[in-house]
Amino acid sequence: MPPQGNKLESSNQYIRNIFLKISTNSGNYKEIKSTSQHHTTPSRKKTLPIVASVLLLLVSFFTFAILGNMSLSPWGIHYGNNTLVTPNYTVESLTRDVQVKNIHSHNDYWRSEPFFEALTFGVISIEADVWHFPSGLEIETYTESTNSSSKDIKSFSNEEIYVGHSSVYLQPKRTLNNLYLDPIYNLLKDSNPKLTYENHSSASFQGEPPLHGVFYDFPDQTLYLWFDIKTASNDTYNGLKPLLKRFIDNNWLTSYDTSTKKLSPGPVTITLTGNLPTELVSSEEIRYVFLDAPLLNFNSTSNGKADLNSTALLSQVASGSLQSILGDESYKEALRSDFSPDQLAKIKDHVDTAHKYNLKTRIWGGVTWPNYVKLAQNKGYYSIGVDLLNTDDIAQFANSF
Hints:
Keywords: Membrane, Transmembrane, Transmembrane helix. Belongs to the AIM6 family. It comes from [Candida] anglica. The protein has 2 domains: about 5-70; about 85-400, TIM Barrel (Alpha-Beta Barrel). The protein is about 40% helix and about 20% strand. It contains 13 helices and 18 strands. The chain has helices at about 10-35, 40-65, 90-95, 115-120, 175-190, 235-250, 280, 305-315, 320-325, 330-335, 340-355, 370-385, 395-400; strands spanning about 70-75, 75-80, 80-85, 100-105, 125-130, 135-145, 150-155, 160-165, 225-230, 255, 260-265, 270-275, 285, 290, 295, 315-320, 360-365, 390. The strands form 4 sheets. Strands 4, 5, 8, 9, 12, 14, 15, 16, 17 and 18 form a 10-stranded mixed beta sheet that branches. Strand 4, helix 4 (about 115-120) and strand 5 form a beta-alpha-beta unit. Helix 1 runs antiparallel to helix 2. The protein starts with 10 loop residues before the first helix and ends with a helix.
């Protein structure tokens, strides 16, 4: 079972343990040598300390030469942006005894191990910035010194969607499939095996949900998966749809049938934000993705408007920036202290209105430092019913409540 949170020894502690074992073995040898010298030849006296020293040198070299470019995490070993070890976990090994939490992992791909780290903390909402290049893309980078120069060309396929915060830092192997869709698909295959009786009829059991999600103790909990579209909306959505087919074929995506007006919950609920393909999604008879609704538009003065009804039918979550909701002056005040009663009431008005339209809520762009203000405001969000609490530090957040 993969370790969780701070249960994993750091890479430094791991290396110190290696040193300790070598030192201990050397010490044991000295003890044996002092009590049993007649069994130790002169050549062996010299050989074992030399071997220990060589091992120490090798470990030191490995440490300083490699760890500069390699991150050791509880969920795998990564060398730069290229995965060396592909995680192969089950739902049970990742999330058994994990309490689900109403946390939104903003920029989740920044984690030491995208997706898996969030799951081990019980995070139910994950966001990734996505890029699609219908004509492909090449990025050339140069390095130069007084003695030499080199050029590196990174190529991006039109059949993939890539994950990253900025176009110049994209990496060919950091695809949406590699970081998110493949791991999610494999976990859902694990948690939804085919069950049959000896007569080959399908087996089902009372009390069991028809489909299991990625949380072992909470099989009914959907995973909110967000794609923040950074490239052209329609092109990116058209590139995304083929990648979702395997999930649709297994009924693993929350969907909405426009003809029957029926919402069918699934293990994964996909929300698009950023550049929205509104027309394409609106025209679909069965929607397998939803659009991020503007929380700013949902308040008591606008409640009941027809456009809010149509917006809500395209969405599962409404989100907005704290600055847009409070206004510039009030926002500046909120950067240095906890929310005032008036500020909290204003935020709550938007949250309560969105809830009347059966939408969950998320607020982004809040305080990131100092920590005591950030945590106090997040507790305020929780107290008024914000559903997905936005954070870039899931470990701190998960342990602060």
